[in-house]
Design goal:
CATH architecture: 3-Layer(aba) Sandwich
Number of domains: 1
Order of helices and strands: EHHEEEHEHEEHE
Distance between the termini: 27 Å
Bound molecules: coenzyme A
Structural class: alpha+beta
Number of strands: 8
CATH topology: Aminopeptidase
CATH class: Alpha Beta
């Protein structure tokens, strides 16, 4: 499907990722990252306890098109990975994955979402800023392949009513801007 079809409306399913998704996840992982995770690292997370390793899969028309992963512990969710198949990028799906994960963390009683991204990653920078994740510090020379810095960003106070209202507003804005038919099974 050409990337230019930005107004296309897809049948989207959000569900928990399982070990059966490993191969398709790794295909997207290799397309999206210059230093992809090893398959056995991904496997360990997919096989981990579901209350600690939250991995969501996004299907478009029945095929895996993206995923997000987070480690959850003591009220804090650390987003470890996020990727959308290049042929489905710029259609709101990355935003949908992050918003769905945030809602899940709220439902679990979580308080913080944290993550890091490469300082040069403009797509990540804008996506997370749009969703209210605030850059809080730099980790110098964090990425081993290039020595690039990481930007650490976070959202706190997830149980505060204002924060939940913000997430709900972001989700409503998303639904207004995108025509995809979304089913959520998590
Ligand atoms: C980052 C990524 C997940 C975004 O997914 P996506 O589905 O293309 O993003 P969306 O269509 O939901 O975009 C949401 C917002 O993110 C920002 N954004 C996304 N891609 C962008 C790009 N290439 N350039 C600038 N801003 C971008 C925009 O603010 C966009 O909002 P808008 O459409 O109103 O302008 C995707 O580009 C990707 O998989 N990249 C490779 C892997 C990666 O970098 N993962 C993040 C690591 S922390």
């Amino acid at each position: 499907m050409p990337q230019s079809e930005q107004s296309a409306a897809y049948s989207v399913l959000l569900r928990y990722a399982t070990i059966a998704d490993l191969s398709n996840i790794m295909t997207i992982e290799y397309q999206c990252f210059s230093s992809p995770w090893r398959a056995d690292t991904m496997r360990a997370d997919l096989e981990g306890p579901k209350d600690r390793k939250i991995y969501l899969a996004l299907e478009v028309n029945g095929e895996l098109a993206g995923y997000i992963g987070a480690h959850y512990y003591a009220g804090e969710a650390h987003i470890t990975t996020l990727a959308v198949d290049p042929q489905y990028q710029r259609m709101g799906l990355g935003e949908l994955l992050v918003l769905t994960l945030m809602s899940k963390v709220v439902a679990l009683g979580g308080i913080y979402v944290t993550l890091e991204y490469r300082a040069s990653n403009r797509a990540a920078e804008r996506l997370y800023a749009k969703l209210g994740l605030v850059p809080v510090r730099i980790r110098k020379n964090y990425y081993q392949d290039t020595g690039e810095d990481a930007v650490v960003a976070e959202m706190s106070g997830l149980q505060e009513p204002e924060c939940q209202a913000t997430i709900e507003q972001l989700a409503a804005d998303w639904r207004r801007r995108h025509q995809h038919d979304v089913r959520v099974r998590i």
